[in-house]
Amino acid sequence: MNAVILQNLVKRFGKKNVLDNISLELPENCIVGLIGRNGAGKTTLLKTLAGYLRPTEGRVTVLGQEPFDNIRVLSDIVFMDDERYNDSAVLWDLVNQAALSYSRFDKVTALKLLDYFNIPVKAKIKKLSKGMKTLFSLVIALLSRSPLTMLDEPTIGLDAAHRKEFFSLLLRDYTNHPRTIIVSSHLISELEGLMEQVVLIDQGKLIFNRAIEDVQSYALYLSGHRRVLEELEGRHSIIYKESMGEMLVLGVVNNLSEEELQGLESSGVKISAMSVQDVCVNLTATNKGGVLDVIAK
Questions:
Q1: Residue 3 pLDDT level (bands cut at 50, 70, 90)
Q2: What's the CA gap between 95 and 173, in Å, rounded?
Q3: What contacts 49, CB < 8 A, 6 or more positions away?
Q4: Residues 6+ apart with CB under 8 A from 14
Q5: Alpha-carbon distance 18 to 13, whole Å?
C-alpha cells in the first residue's frame, strides 16, 4: 500500500506554479529523501502533504485520505520545520501536548533524549539556541512515530557530531518502528546511507522518483580525450560536461552497452560511477558544466 499518492498536483501562489503537475507514489514503511535546490518547492510539497495547504489543482492522498482540513488523518502525520513552535511555549508543555496529540508518542524516551542533549524542559523555546531548538523538534517528531513523519531540513543549526547522532537515532527508531519518513535536505551525501527512495524536484517539477539503487547506477563520469568522447554527445544523454584543453569529462546517463564501455576503456577513457549527490546536482544545474561554464564564457 502507498502512504502518499499525488495526482497532477499543482500549487499556485498568484500566477506562479510552485508545484507544477506532480504525480508520484510513495510506499509505506520507507525512508524517502526529498531533494532539490533552494526554492525548488520542497517545503510547499511537505506542507501540502501535511494538510497545511490546499492543492490548487490535482489530488493529494495521504494514508488513504485527503489531508487538507481532515483531523482524522492529521493525527497520523507529523511535520517538523522551523516554524513549528511559538517562542513563548514551554518545552515541558510541548512534550505533554505531543503525548496527547500522537497516540504512539514515546514520552519516556523523549525525556531521556532531551536530558542526553542537555535541553532543559522547563525553558521556553526562545531561550534555546538554534541547535537546541532543532534537536528538540527532532526528538518530538521522531518519537511521535507517526505513520507519516516529515522532516524539513532537519539538520540546520546542528554541528557535525549532532548531525551524526541524529541520523543514527533516525535509523534506529525507523528500524524498530517502521513508517514512512520523508526527509527534505540539501545534505545529500549524509542521507545516502539512509534513503530507500529519492524524490528529486526542480522549479516545482518532478525530475524523478526512484529507488536509491537506481540513482546510484543512474549515470557515469567519462574522462578522456576530446576526440574519443565528443562522438557520444549525439547518441547519449549528457548531464555534465567539462573541458580541460584536449581532455573532456562527460556525465552520461548510464545506458551504454558493455561493448561501448569496453571500447571506451580500450581508448584510454576512465569510467567511474556518479555519486547520488552529483546526479541530483547535475540534473538540476542551469549549465551542464555548472559554475565553470560561466567562467569559461
A1: very high
A2: 18
A3: 4, 60, 62, 67, 77, 79, 148, 150, 182
A4: none
A5: 7
Q: Position 276: which residue type?
A: V
- Region for 151 from its dihedrals, namely left if φ exceeds 0, alpha if ψ lies in -120 to 50, beta otherwise: beta
Considering only CA atoms, which of 137, 207, 152, 141 is closest in space to residue 184?
152
Complete domains list, the chain, with CATH: 2-212 (3.40.50.300), 216-296 (3.30.70)
- Its pTM stands at 0.91
Q: For residue 270, what pLDDT band results from cuts at 50, 70 and 90?
A: very high
Cell numbers at 45, concatenated: 510539497
- Average model confidence (pLDDT) across the chain: 92
Q: Could you give the CA distance from residue 117 to residue 133 in angstroms, rounded to a whole number?
A: 11
> Is the Cα torsion angle 14, 17, 19, 21 positive or negative in sign?
positive
Q: What is the pLDDT of residues 19-48, one digit of tens each?
A: 999 999 999 999 999 999 988 999 999 999
> For 109-156, what is each residue's pLDDT tens digit?
999 999 999 999 999 999 999 999 999 999 999 999 999 999 999 988
CA–CA gap between residue 189 and residue 165 (Å, rounded): 15
